[in-house]
Amino acid sequence: MRLLFVNPAKLLPLLTVVLGLSACSIGEEVKHIEEVQRAEMRQETARSENLTGEQLFVRSCNTCHPGGLAGMGPSLAEINTAIPDDAQLKALIRKGRGNMPPQSKETMNDPELDNLVVYLRSLNK
After folding, report:
1. For residue range 52-89, what is the model confidence (pLDDT) as tens digits?
2. Nearest one of 72, 50, 74 to 123, comparing CA atoms
C-alpha cells in the first residue's frame, strides 16, 4: 500500500476557498433567520392587544365602511335594525361575507369583538 503525501502548502488555497464559501453560506443563513424573526415580530405586534371598539373599527372596518358610511362596503347606518342580534353580528364579523374578510380570534379576540359590536351599535345613536 502506498500513501499519498500532499504538500500542506498546496492545500491551503483550497482550504481557504472552502472555508470562505461556508462562511458566506452561514452568513446568508443568519440573515435569513433574522429576517424570519423580524417577520414573526411584525406578525406578533399586529395581533390584538385588547383594543377598543373604535380602534378595531379604524384598523379593520373603516377602509370599506368609512365613518360607518358606504364605501367599498355598505353603510352601517341601519346595522341595528338589519342585524339586531349581537350573536348574529359577531358571527358575520367572524365569518366575513362577500369581499368582507373574516376576523379570526388571532386577529380579534372575543373581548375585542364585544368592544367592536358595542362601537358599531353606537354609530347610529
Report:
1. 999 999 999 999 999 999 999 999 999 999 999 999 99
2. 74
- The verdict on 101 and 41 lying in the same domain is no
Quote the DSSP letter at residue 69. S
Would you say residue 1 lies in a domain?
Answer: no
Q: CATH no. for residue 115?
A: 1.10.760.10
Torsion sign (Cα): 80, 70, 68, 56: positive
Q: Is 33 exposed, middle or buried (0-12, 13-18, 19+ CB in 10 A)?
A: exposed
Each residue of 27-50: pLDDT tens digit?
777 787 888 888 877 666 566 578
Both 42 and 57 in one domain: the answer is: no
Based on its alpha-carbon atoms, the radius of gyration of the chain, rounded to whole angstroms, reads: 28
pTM for the structure as a whole: 0.62
